Amino acid sequence: MLEMTETANPKSLWLRIINFGLVIFLMMFAPAFLGLASASSVLWEQILWASVMVVVYIAIGIYAYRLLKATAITPIFQPNSSPKRKSFWWLVGMWLLMLAIELTIANLRVNLTGETTTANEEAINQLTSNLNVTMIAMIIYAVILAPVVEELVFRGLVLNYFLRRNWWWGNIILSGVIFAFPHMGLIPTTLSDGLSYLMYASMGMVLAYVYKKTGAIQNNIAIHMLNNGVTMIPLLLLAINKMQH
Protein backbone atom coordinates (compact mmCIF):
# COMPACT_ATOMS: atom_id res chain seq x y z
CA MET A 1 0.00 0.00 0.00
CA LEU A 2 0.99 3.62 -0.45
CA GLU A 3 2.46 5.78 2.26
CA MET A 4 0.06 8.68 2.49
CA THR A 5 0.41 12.27 3.72
CA GLU A 6 -0.88 12.96 7.25
CA THR A 7 -3.67 15.12 5.87
CA ALA A 8 -5.79 14.10 2.91
CA ASN A 9 -5.66 16.29 -0.20
CA PRO A 10 -8.13 17.93 -0.50
CA LYS A 11 -8.87 18.04 3.23
CA SER A 12 -12.63 18.25 2.76
CA LEU A 13 -14.27 14.82 2.56
CA TRP A 14 -17.02 16.32 0.42
CA LEU A 15 -14.52 17.58 -2.14
CA ARG A 16 -12.96 14.13 -2.28
CA ILE A 17 -16.40 12.57 -2.75
CA ILE A 18 -17.15 15.05 -5.56
CA ASN A 19 -13.83 14.27 -7.26
CA PHE A 20 -14.45 10.54 -6.96
CA GLY A 21 -18.06 10.89 -8.14
CA LEU A 22 -16.89 12.82 -11.20
CA VAL A 23 -14.43 10.07 -12.06
CA ILE A 24 -17.14 7.38 -11.75
CA PHE A 25 -19.57 9.42 -13.88
CA LEU A 26 -17.01 9.89 -16.65
CA MET A 27 -16.08 6.20 -16.54
CA MET A 28 -19.72 5.24 -17.04
CA PHE A 29 -20.23 7.87 -19.75
CA ALA A 30 -17.11 7.26 -21.87
CA PRO A 31 -18.19 3.87 -23.35
CA ALA A 32 -21.22 5.63 -24.87
CA PHE A 33 -18.89 6.82 -27.62
CA LEU A 34 -18.45 3.18 -28.61
CA GLY A 35 -22.21 2.99 -28.99
CA LEU A 36 -22.09 5.97 -31.36
CA ALA A 37 -19.30 4.26 -33.34
CA SER A 38 -21.32 1.06 -33.54
CA ALA A 39 -24.45 2.92 -34.70
CA SER A 40 -22.63 4.62 -37.58
CA SER A 41 -22.16 2.99 -40.99
CA VAL A 42 -19.53 5.54 -42.05
CA LEU A 43 -15.95 4.42 -41.44
CA TRP A 44 -14.51 7.82 -40.56
CA GLU A 45 -17.29 8.41 -38.02
CA GLN A 46 -16.60 5.04 -36.43
CA ILE A 47 -12.89 5.91 -36.15
CA LEU A 48 -13.75 9.37 -34.77
CA TRP A 49 -16.06 8.15 -32.00
CA ALA A 50 -13.76 5.27 -31.10
CA SER A 51 -10.82 7.70 -30.88
CA VAL A 52 -12.84 10.07 -28.68
CA MET A 53 -13.59 7.19 -26.32
CA VAL A 54 -9.89 6.29 -26.07
CA VAL A 55 -8.85 9.90 -25.46
CA VAL A 56 -11.57 10.48 -22.84
CA TYR A 57 -10.71 7.27 -20.99
CA ILE A 58 -6.99 8.09 -20.96
CA ALA A 59 -7.87 11.54 -19.58
CA ILE A 60 -9.92 9.89 -16.81
CA GLY A 61 -6.93 7.70 -15.92
CA ILE A 62 -4.59 10.70 -15.79
CA TYR A 63 -7.08 12.60 -13.59
CA ALA A 64 -7.43 9.64 -11.19
CA TYR A 65 -3.64 9.24 -11.08
CA ARG A 66 -3.18 12.92 -10.23
CA LEU A 67 -5.77 12.73 -7.44
CA LEU A 68 -3.94 9.76 -5.96
CA LYS A 69 -0.47 11.26 -6.41
CA ALA A 70 -1.54 14.47 -4.61
CA THR A 71 -2.06 12.57 -1.36
CA ALA A 72 0.68 9.93 -1.64
CA ILE A 73 4.27 10.22 -0.45
CA THR A 74 5.55 7.07 -2.15
CA PRO A 75 5.30 6.32 -5.91
CA ILE A 76 1.90 5.01 -7.11
CA PHE A 77 3.49 1.98 -8.77
CA GLN A 78 5.31 0.18 -5.95
CA PRO A 79 7.78 -2.68 -6.60
CA ASN A 80 6.78 -6.20 -5.59
CA SER A 81 7.97 -7.12 -2.08
CA SER A 82 8.11 -10.89 -2.74
CA PRO A 83 10.41 -12.78 -5.18
CA LYS A 84 9.29 -12.58 -8.80
CA ARG A 85 8.74 -16.30 -9.26
CA LYS A 86 6.69 -16.65 -6.07
CA SER A 87 4.79 -13.48 -6.87
CA PHE A 88 3.95 -14.69 -10.40
CA TRP A 89 2.42 -17.99 -9.30
CA TRP A 90 0.57 -16.36 -6.43
CA LEU A 91 -0.98 -13.86 -8.85
CA VAL A 92 -1.95 -16.67 -11.22
CA GLY A 93 -3.60 -18.42 -8.27
CA MET A 94 -5.55 -15.28 -7.37
CA TRP A 95 -6.73 -14.92 -10.96
CA LEU A 96 -7.88 -18.55 -10.98
CA LEU A 97 -9.71 -17.91 -7.70
CA MET A 98 -11.44 -14.89 -9.21
CA LEU A 99 -12.34 -16.90 -12.31
CA ALA A 100 -13.72 -19.74 -10.18
CA ILE A 101 -15.91 -17.29 -8.24
CA GLU A 102 -17.17 -15.74 -11.49
CA LEU A 103 -18.08 -19.11 -12.98
CA THR A 104 -19.71 -20.35 -9.77
CA ILE A 105 -21.96 -17.31 -9.42
CA ALA A 106 -22.73 -17.23 -13.17
CA ASN A 107 -23.72 -20.91 -13.04
CA LEU A 108 -25.86 -20.25 -9.97
CA ARG A 109 -27.58 -17.38 -11.78
CA VAL A 110 -28.35 -19.60 -14.78
CA ASN A 111 -29.77 -22.36 -12.58
CA LEU A 112 -31.90 -20.03 -10.47
CA THR A 113 -33.06 -17.51 -13.07
CA GLY A 114 -32.32 -18.97 -16.51
CA GLU A 115 -30.40 -15.82 -17.52
CA THR A 116 -27.00 -16.55 -19.03
CA THR A 117 -25.53 -13.03 -19.31
CA THR A 118 -25.47 -9.79 -17.36
CA ALA A 119 -26.56 -6.47 -18.85
CA ASN A 120 -22.89 -5.47 -19.09
CA GLU A 121 -22.05 -8.68 -20.95
CA GLU A 122 -24.96 -8.19 -23.35
CA ALA A 123 -23.76 -4.67 -24.16
CA ILE A 124 -20.26 -6.00 -24.85
CA ASN A 125 -21.66 -8.77 -27.05
CA GLN A 126 -23.55 -6.22 -29.14
CA LEU A 127 -20.48 -4.04 -29.60
CA THR A 128 -18.33 -7.01 -30.59
CA SER A 129 -20.76 -8.83 -32.87
CA ASN A 130 -18.73 -7.90 -35.96
CA LEU A 131 -15.00 -7.56 -36.64
CA ASN A 132 -14.83 -3.82 -37.29
CA VAL A 133 -13.54 -0.54 -35.83
CA THR A 134 -15.92 -0.78 -32.88
CA MET A 135 -14.71 -4.23 -31.92
CA ILE A 136 -11.05 -3.23 -32.17
CA ALA A 137 -11.77 -0.22 -29.96
CA MET A 138 -13.70 -2.44 -27.55
CA ILE A 139 -10.73 -4.80 -27.24
CA ILE A 140 -8.39 -1.86 -26.55
CA TYR A 141 -10.84 -0.55 -23.99
CA ALA A 142 -11.50 -3.88 -22.25
CA VAL A 143 -7.99 -5.33 -22.24
CA ILE A 144 -5.83 -2.22 -21.80
CA LEU A 145 -7.68 0.94 -20.80
CA ALA A 146 -10.28 -0.39 -18.37
CA PRO A 147 -7.86 -2.49 -16.26
CA VAL A 148 -5.45 0.42 -15.79
CA VAL A 149 -8.07 3.09 -15.08
CA GLU A 150 -10.37 0.90 -12.98
CA GLU A 151 -7.52 -0.27 -10.76
CA LEU A 152 -6.33 3.30 -10.21
CA VAL A 153 -9.89 4.26 -9.26
CA PHE A 154 -11.39 1.29 -7.41
CA ARG A 155 -8.24 0.10 -5.69
CA GLY A 156 -5.92 3.13 -5.74
CA LEU A 157 -8.43 5.83 -4.81
CA VAL A 158 -10.90 3.81 -2.73
CA LEU A 159 -8.22 2.20 -0.57
CA ASN A 160 -5.92 5.22 -0.24
CA TYR A 161 -7.90 8.36 -1.05
CA PHE A 162 -10.76 7.62 1.37
CA LEU A 163 -10.09 4.67 3.66
CA ARG A 164 -6.61 5.50 4.83
CA ARG A 165 -6.60 3.86 8.29
CA ASN A 166 -9.82 1.91 8.39
CA TRP A 167 -10.73 -1.74 8.96
CA TRP A 168 -8.60 -4.00 6.71
CA TRP A 169 -11.45 -6.19 5.43
CA GLY A 170 -13.88 -3.27 5.40
CA ASN A 171 -11.73 -1.58 2.76
CA ILE A 172 -11.78 -4.72 0.62
CA ILE A 173 -15.56 -5.11 0.87
CA LEU A 174 -16.23 -1.46 0.05
CA SER A 175 -13.86 -1.56 -2.93
CA GLY A 176 -15.76 -4.55 -4.35
CA VAL A 177 -19.19 -3.03 -3.72
CA ILE A 178 -18.26 0.24 -5.44
CA PHE A 179 -16.52 -1.62 -8.28
CA ALA A 180 -19.71 -3.55 -9.07
CA PHE A 181 -21.95 -0.53 -9.50
CA PRO A 182 -20.55 0.94 -12.79
CA HIS A 183 -20.46 -2.56 -14.27
CA MET A 184 -24.16 -2.98 -13.54
CA GLY A 185 -25.28 0.57 -14.26
CA LEU A 186 -28.31 0.04 -12.02
CA ILE A 187 -29.39 -0.88 -8.52
CA PRO A 188 -30.12 -4.62 -8.38
CA THR A 189 -33.86 -5.24 -7.91
CA THR A 190 -34.14 -8.85 -9.10
CA LEU A 191 -32.42 -12.08 -8.13
CA SER A 192 -30.58 -12.14 -11.45
CA ASP A 193 -29.33 -8.57 -10.99
CA GLY A 194 -28.37 -9.33 -7.39
CA LEU A 195 -26.28 -12.33 -8.41
CA SER A 196 -24.66 -10.33 -11.22
CA TYR A 197 -23.86 -7.57 -8.73
CA LEU A 198 -22.39 -10.18 -6.35
CA MET A 199 -20.21 -11.54 -9.15
CA TYR A 200 -18.69 -8.16 -9.98
CA ALA A 201 -18.36 -7.26 -6.29
CA SER A 202 -16.51 -10.53 -5.62
CA MET A 203 -14.12 -9.79 -8.49
CA GLY A 204 -13.46 -6.37 -7.02
CA MET A 205 -12.85 -7.83 -3.57
CA VAL A 206 -10.29 -10.32 -4.89
CA LEU A 207 -8.48 -7.50 -6.69
CA ALA A 208 -8.59 -5.35 -3.55
CA TYR A 209 -7.14 -8.25 -1.54
CA VAL A 210 -4.28 -8.58 -4.06
CA TYR A 211 -3.53 -4.87 -3.74
CA LYS A 212 -3.64 -4.95 0.06
CA LYS A 213 -1.33 -7.97 0.19
CA THR A 214 1.25 -6.85 -2.39
CA GLY A 215 0.98 -3.05 -2.33
CA ALA A 216 1.76 -3.05 -6.06
CA ILE A 217 -1.13 -1.85 -8.17
CA GLN A 218 0.49 -3.20 -11.34
CA ASN A 219 -0.32 -6.68 -10.02
CA ASN A 220 -4.01 -5.81 -10.05
CA ILE A 221 -3.71 -4.35 -13.53
CA ALA A 222 -2.05 -7.53 -14.80
CA ILE A 223 -4.77 -9.80 -13.33
CA HIS A 224 -7.49 -7.50 -14.62
CA MET A 225 -5.97 -7.47 -18.11
CA LEU A 226 -5.65 -11.25 -18.12
CA ASN A 227 -9.24 -11.73 -16.98
CA ASN A 228 -10.67 -9.32 -19.58
CA GLY A 229 -8.40 -10.68 -22.30
CA VAL A 230 -9.58 -14.24 -21.72
CA THR A 231 -13.19 -13.00 -21.82
CA MET A 232 -12.64 -11.26 -25.16
CA ILE A 233 -11.08 -14.28 -26.94
CA PRO A 234 -14.34 -16.18 -27.66
CA LEU A 235 -16.03 -12.96 -28.78
CA LEU A 236 -13.16 -12.27 -31.18
CA LEU A 237 -13.29 -15.81 -32.55
CA LEU A 238 -17.06 -15.56 -33.09
CA ALA A 239 -16.66 -12.27 -34.95
CA ILE A 240 -13.92 -13.72 -37.18
CA ASN A 241 -16.04 -16.80 -37.88
CA LYS A 242 -19.03 -14.59 -38.73
CA MET A 243 -16.92 -12.52 -41.12
CA GLN A 244 -15.70 -15.66 -42.92
CA HIS A 245 -19.26 -16.84 -43.48
UniProtKB/TrEMBL annotation:
<keyword id="KW-0378">Hydrolase</keyword>
<keyword id="KW-0482">Metalloprotease</keyword>
<keyword id="KW-0472">Membrane</keyword>
<dbReference type="GO" id="GO:0080120">
    <property type="term" value="P:CAAX-box protein maturation"/>
</dbReference>
<dbReference type="Pfam" id="PF02517">
    <property type="entry name" value="Rce1-like"/>
</dbReference>
<dbReference type="GO" id="GO:0008237">
    <property type="term" value="F:metallopeptidase activity"/>
</dbReference>
<feature type="transmembrane region" description="Helical">
    <location>
        <begin position="223"/>
        <end position="240"/>
    </location>
</feature>
<dbReference type="InterPro" id="IPR003675">
    <property type="entry name" value="Rce1/LyrA-like_dom"/>
</dbReference>
<feature type="transmembrane region" description="Helical">
    <location>
        <begin position="46"/>
        <end position="68"/>
    </location>
</feature>
<keyword id="KW-0812">Transmembrane</keyword>
<feature type="transmembrane region" description="Helical">
    <location>
        <begin position="88"/>
        <end position="110"/>
    </location>
</feature>
<feature type="domain" description="CAAX prenyl protease 2/Lysostaphin resistance protein A-like">
    <location>
        <begin position="134"/>
        <end position="229"/>
    </location>
</feature>
<protein>
    <submittedName>
        <fullName>CPBP family intramembrane metalloprotease</fullName>
    </submittedName>
</protein>
<feature type="transmembrane region" description="Helical">
    <location>
        <begin position="194"/>
        <end position="211"/>
    </location>
</feature>
<dbReference type="InterPro" id="IPR052710">
    <property type="entry name" value="CAAX_protease"/>
</dbReference>
<keyword id="KW-1133">Transmembrane helix</keyword>
<keyword id="KW-0645">Protease</keyword>
<feature type="transmembrane region" description="Helical">
    <location>
        <begin position="130"/>
        <end position="154"/>
    </location>
</feature>
<comment type="similarity">
    <text>Belongs to the UPF0177 family.</text>
</comment>
<feature type="transmembrane region" description="Helical">
    <location>
        <begin position="166"/>
        <end position="188"/>
    </location>
</feature>
<feature type="transmembrane region" description="Helical">
    <location>
        <begin position="12"/>
        <end position="34"/>
    </location>
</feature>
<dbReference type="GO" id="GO:0004175">
    <property type="term" value="F:endopeptidase activity"/>
</dbReference>
